[in-house]
Specification:
It contains six helices and five strands; from the N terminus they run E-H-E-H-E-H-E-H-E-H-H. With about 140 residues, it is α/β, with parallel strands linked by helices. It has a five-stranded parallel beta sheet with strand order 2-1-3-5-4, with helices on both faces. The model has no long low-confidence stretch (mean pLDDT about 95). Bound molecules: D-ribose (RB5). D-ribose binds next to helix 3.
Amino acid sequence: MVKIIIGSDHAGFNLKEKLKKYFDKKKIRYEDVGTYSLERVDYPYYAKKVARKIIKNRNTRGILICGTGTGMVIAANKIKGVRAVVAYDLYSAKMSRMDNDANILALRGRYFSYKKTQQIVNMWINSKFTGKSIHRKRIKSIE
Ligand code: RB5
C-alpha cells in the first residue's frame, strides 16, 4: 500500500487535519510535513517538501492542500520527476492516475465540499497507472 506524504499551507490546514483522521480510520499510511497551525505560511515551501520526499521514496505519493490547489501544483511541478495535478472532480482524479501517473494530488482547502474531496482522494489513491506504452512515451517526453 502506498504511503501518502501530506502537506498544506494555512488555507489547507483544516482540511489536512480532517483527511488525517480519515486516513487513520481507513488505515492509510501517511506522513504529515506541515504546516502545523493556522499561522500564515507560504505554500511553495510545503510543495517543495512533499515533492522532494515523493521523488526520493518510490512507494509514496503526495497530497498538497492550499486555498485552491493551484499554487501548490505550480510549485510542485518545478521539481524534476513530479507530475502534480489539481482535481475538483472524480474523472480528472481517476484519469490523472491512469494516463498521467500523477504522483501528487493538490486539493482545494477553501469553499469546497468535504464529501466531494473525500471521494476525489479515494479515487486518486485507488486508481492505478495503466502502464500503456503510449502513456509511458508521453510521460517520458515531458521529462
Ligand atoms: C493563501 O491565502 C492562498 O493564496 C493559497 O492558499 C493558495 O490558494 C495559492 O494558490
